[in-house]
Amino acid sequence: MKYMALTLLTAGAIASAPTVNGQASERVEHLLSDMTLEEKVGQMTQLTLTAVAARPSQGSGRVELDPDLLREALVDRHIGSLLNAHDEALPLEGWHELITEIQDVATNETRLGIPIVYGIDAIHGTGYMMDATIFPHNLGLAATFNPELVRRTGEITAVEVLASGITWNFGPVLDMGRHPAWPRFYETFGEDPYLASILGRAAFEGQQSVETFGASMKHYLGYGQPYSGRDRAPTYLPEYLVREIHLAPFAEAMHADPAAVMVNSGEINGVPVHASYYWLTEVLRGELGFEGVIVTDWMDVIFLHTRHRIARDLREATRLAVEAGIDMSMTPYDFAFADHLISLVQDGVIPESRIDESVRRILTMKERMGLFDDPYPDQSLSDDFALPESRAVARQAAAESITLLQNDGILPLQEGGRILVTGPAARSLSALNGGWTHTWQGVDEQFFPDDYVTLLDELHERNVTVAYEEGAGFLEKGNIEAAVDLARHADVAIVVLGEQGYSEWVGDISDLALPEPQIQLAEAIIATGTPTVVVLLQGRPRLISRFADDAAAIVMAYWPGMEGAQAIADVLFGDVNPSGRLPFTYPRAANELIPYDHRFVETLNTGFDRQAGGFNPQYEFGHGLSYTTFEYSDLEVHRTMARTNRYRIEIQVTNTGDRAGREHVLLYVRQNVASLTPPVKRLRGFQSVNLEPGESARVTFELDDPDFSYIGLEGMPVLEPGVFDILIGDFTESLNVLNYFQ
Ligand code: BGC
Fold first, then answer.
1. Alpha-carbon gap, residue 631 to 152, rounded angstroms
2. What's the pLDDT tens digit per position in 51-74?
3. Please, where are the H alpha helices in 347-494?
4. How many CA atoms lie within 13 A of 413 on its CB side?
5. Which end of the chain is more exposed for a tag (fewer CB within 10 A), N or C?
6. 175 lines ligand 1 (CB under 6 A)
7. pTM for this model (two decimals)
8. Nearest C-alpha to atom 6 of ligand 1 is from which residue?
């Protein structure tokens, strides 16, 4: 609980001069001293697999490399890194062959024999490896409010990536989900920086606990709040909020010593992050003390010229990015970056010592990954790949993520009844797994393993009579009448709506509402009078206000992964008592994308007196129902040390219903008055308890200075004395906070 607190105090307190690269190991220094400029710049260049491949696997399980292209890249151009799958996931043996062939050339045919560092996107489990363990996306993991579970998913992910022979992950994602239309919203741990910091750190600790594995923080910085809601678009935000909201999870993940960072493809306040010396060097290296590798995102050096238009040509773009602080360019198809960088050094524009800094970091990362000792896949790790116990963790994560948004008592369902299943997501694997699953977009279901089941498949396995009619496509109209007809003869209708997979800009939308055919289907089924349960499988909160109030129950399942169908069915039938909580504010209307930690003046009502009360989202951050009920009582606040702001907060939680259940207790702090308008509240702690019927537990929180601080205009934590409220459930307790250091 103190993680974020620690960070708030240290961010900004560390010396703000850029870190000067210290000496690396003897092996690295020795190699470096032996390298030509071309060899050094080659290490800073990263190509995608497609650039050296003859053909994709197309279902064969093997990618055929082009020996000439591979040698041109590795031997002639000294390329240091490759990335990505070639369109689709490969089985373990396919990766083993590929990595072995690449490392053979790198270590045997190049002058210095430096191995390649291969990078991959393992975003929710090891999505580019056939039969791997696929977890809920981060948004669903955030709903579990369970750092230990997130840590475990990270560890399994790292082991499975490593089993393929790959040592470098482009994740975990630490972006904040601050715009619900953003097509990468599902990759985030939601809208709250405290929650994202704790879960992000847990994910890093899990991944980096696996020896020789390197994880990357991404996408640094400010990616998740694009003004337009589109991917790779500008963020306009005062710096103190960039720091308080977006920098926090990166600062926190520093405790897990991340190997690398990938840069945000967008802009902050008019400056593309790839060209920002301030954010990359002064803040990331200087303040946060990051010493790992800074890799660009896809083509982003080129885009400084062609898209952001801050560079007249590619040479200028290269100069800007390198001067800003990047170490490696994901070019990822050609050698233009390398050519320009060589000429910039030869012309004296960029000193070779600057190149040395980056190469030293890259070689150090390779060393840390054990690549100099053995760059080949460790076959013995195959025994740890896709274990049943890993799959059980995926099941647990999916079950704990599912969030019951609404329930008039229809759930849990009775066994033995007749149910209609309808909606485009009912028979879709893609809508369970989302983007980054077996292919980039996660839509092509021919690549999904045979043992994956859809929600419809799973419901057929349960003790009910199932009728099915799709009723609507994700975007297109379907046979609503047929679905309505079946609904009339059913005891309950389950309408499964949402989104099929997408990644990055392909998922840009111009309307946050659920597509019209799906809304019409829900409305028509509800209008039959048959109790209707809506299940939402989606990567972001598509608006449902046109029918939500009339549904008997609404279940948010996010994109829950390979075990999602079973987990949803378990919740529907009461085998699992739901405990997920929304990690974001679910908006009711398209023009009210207001997060929970808004300013007071953002939500005044429309009356002449303009009172509070104008905050009216569909569901609030932290909302989530259970099949049992919990009561909070006996709040106690103790100061634990005189002349400090150290407090212990205790509250009693009792399961007052008739089922065992899990309750997440959320603690918020509200600063009543501050020099910079304070948000109405900030999450500062959460604790989870499992309680049998009638059982009680005392839940304890500890608060200290950082929990009462915010990031001020100077970019530093500020503690302003005054009255603060502690909010837990319906309880509020006021504290008089003083600044003992001034
Ligand atoms: C994405 C990154 C990803 C990279 C490599 C980019 O387009 O923005 O998140 O790591 O591709 O696949």
1. 30
2. 999 999 988 999 999 999 999 999
3. 352-368, 388-401, 430-433, 455-460, 480-488
4. 30
5. C
6. no
7. 0.96
8. 298
